[in-house]
UniProtKB/TrEMBL annotation:
<dbReference type="InterPro" id="IPR036390">
    <property type="entry name" value="WH_DNA-bd_sf"/>
</dbReference>
<comment type="similarity">
    <text>Belongs to the ROK (NagC/XylR) family.</text>
</comment>
<dbReference type="Pfam" id="PF12802">
    <property type="entry name" value="MarR_2"/>
</dbReference>
<dbReference type="InterPro" id="IPR000600">
    <property type="entry name" value="ROK"/>
</dbReference>
<protein>
    <submittedName>
        <fullName>Xylose repressor</fullName>
    </submittedName>
</protein>
<dbReference type="Pfam" id="PF00480">
    <property type="entry name" value="ROK"/>
</dbReference>
<dbReference type="InterPro" id="IPR036388">
    <property type="entry name" value="WH-like_DNA-bd_sf"/>
</dbReference>
<feature type="domain" description="HTH marR-type">
    <location>
        <begin position="18"/>
        <end position="62"/>
    </location>
</feature>
<dbReference type="InterPro" id="IPR043129">
    <property type="entry name" value="ATPase_NBD"/>
</dbReference>
<dbReference type="GO" id="GO:0003700">
    <property type="term" value="F:DNA-binding transcription factor activity"/>
</dbReference>
<dbReference type="InterPro" id="IPR000835">
    <property type="entry name" value="HTH_MarR-typ"/>
</dbReference>
Length: 390
């Protein structure tokens, strides 16, 4: 067994850079002295690290702070709105979404391109993604990282998309393909769309730290957050609630099973049962009180309650966040879903499950992808600083 070695100067600086930037992010407007007090570092160390981060565009100085009595006034420190941006991409079944967010998580710009990705090979879809990324890059802001949300099983260690049943994809090296096609020379994060949507809700939602975020589109995915941490499972394959069998006699699913939740409560099934052309017409019919549309949504709520009650009984989660199309359907979904959960969750008498609509709706996954790229810099800024100042 090798003996522990002393930390190198570079390792110490890397650790301290993360401490300083976290203090600035948590306390916008803090002075160098306040950051030193918060981190326990010396004022000289903080000043040196802040100067490096200002030089790399991560931090900006504001006006000098008011100070009673004699002494030098400190300047307010903030994350730079013109610093490195996270570029997020979501590959949906019928669209490609992209967005740029700054270091504070503010959206600079977003794009949505309809695209029938079920009818295309991975190569053709990723070529469209590369085009979308090049469009975003023309905004002429520094790109610090690329996050990609995909609707399938993503292996955490490798970033490989193992299978996406609704796209018909298997064993796709999304990260490698985009590296070759785009050549941005930035870190590329690939994640499951439901997990990234749950992270976006955690970062920008109503402050809940324990919830299951269920994204309802053509497919259905769940992101599970416990104690403000995403739970992905051992390999990153957790949260596939859309392929939880809820009716053994139900229809066949592209995953190979029968009676999966998304075949009974997904967007396509609600549209079919309501006899409408798509989600927009479904919403119009619901607003008008159309009985067939209401019954279609109530049926979906029933099956959704079956699946979610299993998750709540297993994990003791207090909140269900409805995302994607479900967020728009919340006024009609919530009541029957709450009733189903009350009947099926053993602890409901003492701890009723709260059902809320996502504050981000259909934008959650792409926001989570972009935000993940930004937060990787905030968590470990020194590699980015070193690359800019090299």
């Amino acid at each position: 067994m090798s003996r522990p070695q002393p930390a190198s100067q570079h390792t110490v600086r890397r650790h301290n850079s993360a401490l300083v930037l976290d203090a600035i992010a948590a306390g916008p407007g803090s002075s160098r002295a306040a950051v030193a007090a918060r981190t326990g570092l010396t004022k000289a160390t903080v000043s040196s690290l802040v100067d490096r981060m200002i030089g790399a565009g991560l931090v900006v100085e504001g006006e000098a702070q008011a100070r009673p009595g004699p002494g030098r006034r400190g300047t307010a420190l903030h994350l730079s709105p013109s610093g490195p941006h996270g570029l997020g991409v979501e590959i949906g079944v019928d669209y490609i979404a992209t967005c740029l967010v700054d270091l504070t998580g503010r959206v600079r710009k977003r794009w949505l391109r309809p695209s029938d990705n079920r009818a295309s090979s991975p190569g053709r879809v990723l070529a469209k993604v590369a085009t979308a990324v090049r469009t975003a890059v023309r905004e002429e802001v520094p790109i610090g990282g690329l996050g990609v949300a995909v609707p399938g099983l993503v292996e955490s260690a490798s970033g490989t998309l193992r299978v996406a049943p609704n796209l018909g994809w298997r064993e796709v090296d999304v990260r490698g393909e985009l590296d070759r096609r785009i050549g941005l020379d930035v870190p590329v994060l690939v994640g499951n769309e439901a997990n990234l949507a749950a992270l976006a809700e955690l970062w920008h939602g109503d402050g809940a730290a324990d919830f299951v975020h269920v994204s309802g589109e053509i497919g259905i995915g769940a992101g599970i957050v416990v104690d403000a941490q995403l739970f992905e499972g051992v390999s990153g394959f957790g949260g596939e609630i859309g392929h939880l069998p809820v009716d053994p006699r139900g229809p066949r699913c592209p995953c190979g099973s029968r009676g999966c939740l998304e075949r009974l409560a997904g967007q396509d099934e609600m549209v079919r049962a309501a006899g409408v052309s798509g989600p927009e017409e479904l919403l119009t019919r619901l607003a008008a009180g159309d009985r067939t549309a209401l019954m279609a949504v109530r049926s979906a709520a029933k099956w959704l309650g079956v699946a979610l009650s299993a998750a709540v009984n297993l994990l003791d989660l207090p909140t269900v966040v409805l995302g994607g199309t479900y967020a728009r359907l919340e006024p009609w979904l919530r009541e029957p879903l709450e009733a189903e959960l009350a009947n099926r969750v053993m602890s409901a008498e003492w701890a009723p499950v709260r059902v809320v609509a996502s504050s981000l709706g259909a934008e959650a996954a792409v926001r989570g992808a972009a935000g993940g790229a930004v937060r990787a810099i905030l968590a470990d800024p020194d590699p980015y600083v070193a690359s800019v100042l090299a």
